């Protein structure tokens, strides 16, 4: 097990409140691509700008894209999110596809810094069985069944409910009362 998580900040899960309840609001506010027009380490960024940047901008109208050419500097991307966080990514010697994948990654993030999550509960003996859910002990054939299904639609023989048992007891008592009552 790695100990690299020791130096990460820790905290509880925070999400943008109710994002996606009415409509989804992308959290990436703006992205700045800084690159050199001549340097070889910026080739992938320049190729991305020439071929894929317009498609990226059209598919993400809520995100502002800035291009900032700089002389003799390594390429990078700076993403700014709605919560005020900034993320810096060096794009030195990345290919066009790698730049596209990293921009897609930045676009889908919430902007909350990567952190080690804490839990409100603690146990010295964690379970190895997994989390229980209502489908844990269901039959496996339900997963692949086409509904309506003949065998799965058959009524299950259930024990009578408490109400049905009381009605039955009442009917029996009515019968025994009528037999015990003498006729005049």
TrEMBL record:
Its annotated compartments are:
Mitochondrion
**Record-level Gene Ontology MF annotations:** structural constituent of ribosome
Note the superkingdom of the native organism.
Eukaryota
GO BP: mitochondrial translation
Its keywords, alphabetically, are: Mitochondrion, Ribonucleoprotein, Ribosomal protein
Q: Which Pfam families match?
A: L51_S25_CI-B8 (PF05047)
InterPro entries recorded for this chain?
A: Ribosomal_mL43 (IPR039927), Ribosomal_mL43/mS25/NADH_DH (IPR007741), Thioredoxin-like_sf (IPR036249)
Q: GO cellular component annotations, sorted alphabetically? A: mitochondrial large ribosomal subunit
Which ranges carry the Ribosomal protein/NADH dehydrogenase domain? 37-110
Q: Does the keyword Membrane apply?
A: no
Q: Do the record's keywords include Zinc-finger?
A: no
Q: What is its main location?
A: mitochondrion
The UniProt family comment states: Belongs to the mitochondrion-specific ribosomal protein mL43 family.
Question: Which protein is depicted?
Answer: Large ribosomal subunit protein mL43
């Amino acid at each position: 097990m790695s100990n690299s998580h020791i130096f990460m900040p820790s905290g509880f899960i925070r999400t943008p409140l109710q994002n996606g309840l009415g409509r989804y609001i992308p959290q990436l506010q703006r992205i700045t691509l800084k690159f050199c027009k001549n340097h070889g380490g910026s080739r992938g960024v320049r190729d991305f700008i020439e071929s894929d940047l317009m498609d990226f901008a059209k598919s993400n109208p809520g995100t502002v894209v800035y291009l900032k050419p700089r002389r003799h500097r390594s390429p990078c991307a700076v993403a700014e999110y709605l919560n005020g966080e900034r993320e810096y990514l060096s794009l030195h010697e990345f290919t066009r596809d790698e730049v596209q994948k990293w921009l897609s990654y930045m676009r889908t993030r919430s902007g909350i810094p990567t952190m080690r999550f804490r839990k409100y509960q603690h146990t010295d003996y964690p379970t190895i069985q997994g989390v229980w859910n209502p489908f844990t002990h269901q039959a496996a054939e339900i997963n692949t069944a086409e509904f309506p299904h003949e065998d799965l639609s058959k009524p299950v023989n259930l024990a009578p409910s408490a109400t049905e048992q009381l009605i039955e007891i009442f009917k029996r008592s009515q019968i025994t009362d009528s037999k015990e009552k003498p006729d005049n």
